[in-house]
Specification:
A hairpin with a 6-residue loop joins strand 10 and strand 11. The protein is built from 7 helices and 13 strands. With 293 residues, it is α+β, with helices and mostly antiparallel strands.
Length: 293
């Protein structure tokens, strides 16, 4: 491997041996790479759609500078890249994965990779309308007063309830996935711990989940309240409870993503003490048919 080349591997343990320290050095900005590497390590790439996973590490002068991962049939996801690093990655992948469907990363890195990919492959790119903001928790400030009711953590015997709430969330955000007891183990929802907010009569009204502790960090994911029950403080209460639980579990950093098109949820997280870390974006690629080339 040249000193500034991208090293490619299909072995997630190889990736973590080479770049685990780098990923843990900025867990917030590297949250997606850390999360998916751990999922592949514990569940195998076949759990997420089949195909062979591909990981890459950029080293320069003996130091890791960047990482990417790709789980078929998804696009490529990258840690923060400079324009030069994006160009070197696009050149490397053009001969290995010539028709990537998309790139996802912090907005600036996604944009420079999309531009570089077009130069090396002729692909056109289009930014998705969905834009996310990554937040990191500062000082947790629970809402006062809390709505009437209590938090309840779902356990192993609550699979049907967890699947129901995650399925409702998936439908609300337009995620193309079936979530039920049969499909549960093949979804990204299976590795989270969920908490419901229940009214005094034990009616569940809101849900929040959190990923396992990875690299000293926990990601809060998901937070969802049915539309008919919004505006009553349930989401704030359950998000605050899960954030508190993440800190109690030993997380040095607690992060979450919010849809930038939803000012209500963004304002809610900011009131709880979350501060902007980065904006996130995805670019989809389109290719000219071979005969048209």
């Amino acid at each position: 491997m040249r000193v500034d080349d991208w090293y490619l591997t299909e072995d997630v343990d190889d990736l973590l041996d080479r770049a685990g320290g780098f990923l843990r050095s900025r867990p917030g900005m590297h949250v997606m790479a850390l999360t998916w590497a751990e999922r592949v390590r514990t569940r195998g790439p076949a759990a997420f759609g089949g195909g062979t996973a591909l990981f890459g590490v950029l080293e320069s002068a003996g130091e890791v500078r960047a990482v990417f991962y790709r789980l078929p049939p998804r696009g490529v996801s990258v840690t923060p890249l400079t324009a030069g690093q994006a160009d070197s990655l696009a050149a490397r992948l053009a001969g290995v994965l010539p028709e990537l469907p998309a790139v996802s990363a912090d907005h600036e890195s996604a944009a420079v990779f999309a531009e570089a990919w077009g130069r090396h492959t002729g692909a056109t790119s289009k930014a998705r309308d969905l834009r996310l903001r990554l937040y990191r928790l500062g000082t947790l400030t629970p809402p006062e007063p809390l709505p009437a009711g209590r938090a309840r953590v779902l356990g192993e015997g609550d699979l049907d309830e967890a699947a129901f709430w995650c399925g409702e969330f998936a439908k609300a955000v337009g995620e193309d996935v079936t979530v039920n007891a049969e499909t549960w183990s093949s979804t990204r929802y299976a590795d989270k711990r969920y908490t419901l907010w229940e009214t005094p009569d034990r009616t569940p009204v809101s849900v929040a989940g959190m990923n396992p502790l990875i690299g000293g960090q926990i990601q809060v994911d998901i937070v969802y309240t049915p539309a008919r029950l919004r505006g009553r403080g349930y989401a704030a209460a359950v998000a605050a409870e899960v954030s508190r639980a993440a800190l109690a579990a030993g997380a040095r950093d607690v992060v979450l993503f919010a849809d930038l098109s939803n000012p209500t949820s963004n304002a809610l997280y900011q009131r709880l003490g979350y501060r902007t870390l980065a904006d996130w974006g995805t670019y989809d690629f389109a290719y000219v048919e071979p005969e048209a080339r």
